[in-house]
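Field: sequence (string)
Field: structure_tokens (string)

Example rows 1 and 2, in order.
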Amino acid sequence: MNFGSKRDESPDINLTPLIDVVFLLLIFFMVSTTFDKQAEIQIDLPEATGKPTETEKFVIEISIDSLGRYFVNNRRLRDNKLATLKWAIQETMADRKNPHVLISSDKETSYQSVMTAMDAVRQLGLNKFSLTVKDAQADK
């Protein structure tokens, strides 16, 4: 007894709506995500006017927060001593010769903390360093 012809057609699955949803989710997350370089260390930079200088590929960044704590390339140091800061800079440098050093400090940081960072850089014989500031014209 033959009730009908046997179908050899496989079910057709349309992937277009799935791909549309995935792209919409991707766009949503790309737009809603913020990329902030200073997200981990809260530093309110002082303002200045002028043109930014070009930076090199390898940079050592010394950050000082408002409490005077030091961070070398976003790694917090265990204390605020000059010897510890010099050791951290040397470890970060490894075998690189005379890298560029950026010193970023909060505007509430004591002058002594900034001078200690500059002194550590100078004692290590590094002569290429700069202080980072926030562009005053960008906020207007």
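Row 2 begins here:
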Amino acid sequence: MKLCVFQGTFNPIHKVHLKVAEFALDFYKFDKILFIPAYLPPHKEVDKNLAKHRFNMVKLAVEDNEYFDISDIEYKREGCSYTYLTILELKNIYKISGKINFLIGTDAFEKIDTWYETDKLKEHLHFIVFPRCNNFKESDFDKFKDMGYDFEFAPMDYIDVSSTEVRDNINNKKSVEMLEIPRVVEYIKENGLYE
């Protein structure tokens, strides 16, 4: 199976997350995109009480696409969601030999050398890096090649929507239709999230 992992905080999941996954599925001909919501991301301050809601929203967002799946691997483990530990578990579950494809934004990838067990992690992953700003320079990431990270940039145009913007809009009583995932919009309203 040609598997690709999409791990993230998804706080909340929105249309760009799905567009990135759809692009990767189509462009790289993956068999499956596995969404892995982080239970407790080590690099971000996240309300622990939202963990279950973030998982439920991803589940709602991906359930109609037969090529998308969700994993609760980090929820079962609880504690800090270290990618390295998750990848080792995935290799056992799916009997994967070689590297796992891993979707990541430029904003997260530029800090990859600070991740837990990063030197071991880079032996297991092929990073597919998506632009998170309009004018990023690929040359700014050359140092990561020198450090032995295996990555490529996905040829997808930047789309200007972020989870932070969605949360801010909710908090300021503005529309969240930018999510473009009706079930997730409804879930947020029903549960009074981010207010």
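free_text_note (row 2): The radius of gyration is 16 Å.
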